[in-house]
Task: structure prediction
Amino acid sequence: MQTEKLYYQDQYLGRFTAHILNAQIDEKGRFYVILDQTAFYPTGGGQPHDTGTLNDMEVIDVEEINGEIRHYISGSMEVGSECVGEIHWERRMDHMQQHAGQHILSAAFEEEFGYKTVSFHMGKELCSIDIAIENLTEEEAYEVEKIANIIIIENHPIETRWVNQEELSNYKLRKEVSVSENIRLVIIPDFDYNGCGGTHPIATGQVGSIEILHWEKQKNHVRVFFVCGRRVRTQLHKKHKVIQNLSALLSSPQEQLVETSKRILEGTKQLEKIITHLKQQLIEYEAESLTAQSERKQQYKLIKEVFVNRPIAELQQLAKNITSKSDMIIVLLVNETDEKLQLVCGRGKGTSVSMNQLIKQVLPTINGKGGGNDVIAQGGGEKLIHPDELMNRLVEAI
Result:
């Protein structure tokens, strides 16, 4: 069922009437209608679908499947009835600004440096293009952004034209078209000629402005993130708010924020080194204290201790420090966190008990997992028993 595409006749049409040709439920259980004409743009060509209402019912998705434009709505309608459609205009205008901005930006990259665009993505907040290069410099990005905004300020017309394959040779296309019939070109005269099925404003001035935000390497390409039109103001507001908060938090003016942050980060690194050194000294002191309190058995000395919310890495280091002080010693450490029980077991070189086999005997008690070797092992599991009970089972297993 062919639907007349009103969005190609007038991209500024925000309200229309139509008749329902078909009404169905798809394989996902979603209700949709097919209209004799529509101003709702379906998802395609990197541009998201329009939203709005049909007879005050929300249009939540629009797709073109096998030539049918399906309008997925929140309610139901009868075939043959008339409906009134209204487009969410701010969303449509935003999409037109971003899509036209992408054409301008891609053309500027290619015109100035010969960098071709290989893909385009329009997100809810940011847009991106992948360009076929491995590296992009700040100077190149700045120059392209400047050219793109000059094209906007000069307010060039944005034209659309339907052509056939034979007529394509008359245009300097930026890339090959993906269809062989009903070919639609979007043209900025003397600047960009591109096959495209999306919606665009009638002139570049309506894009407002283009701002390149940042870029990152993506395999053999560079992904450039940008915004156009109203999104530029949104990004400016958000970033200015962050800068204001940082300035107040760091007691630093905007122009000194980078240097101030560097000093704070460097100071933090130094403090972290001091803290790490002090923790090592405390663990060493703790190891000496526990060793002095060890229980003497017939063939070895035993240290057993229960902790609450200790980092497992600290307990591993504690066990290593203790076993390095005496060959004839066994260390059993149990740790209780908010959600689980953990254990670390170690021995000196003079004892023959395998720590790996020891924890494997008790871990099933707490549905636990773990591992290690004969000298040191660790594991953890559910809080099914009291930590003291877990310690008693370790002692019995020895």
About this structure: The longest strand covers residues 15-25. The chain has a mean pLDDT of 93.
